[in-house]
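To make the argument concrete, we let one protein speak, a sequence paired with a row of structure tokens, as a model reads it:
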Amino acid sequence: MEKAVKEKNVKLKVKRAFYDKTDSLKLKKVGEELDVSPDRGEKLISLGLAEKPDADAQKATAEK
């Protein structure tokens, strides 16, 4: 039996506002940060709805 490999969620930043069907059609606004599965992250990026946040921006946020 194989052990289930838990994939680490990825953080994304919303580029275009959209209604998230996986979250009861809640509006995701531009600039909002999302924590999603890798598969969902790839889908949102390919649709142009989200992008990976800049490394510099993440460091600045972590330092605060």
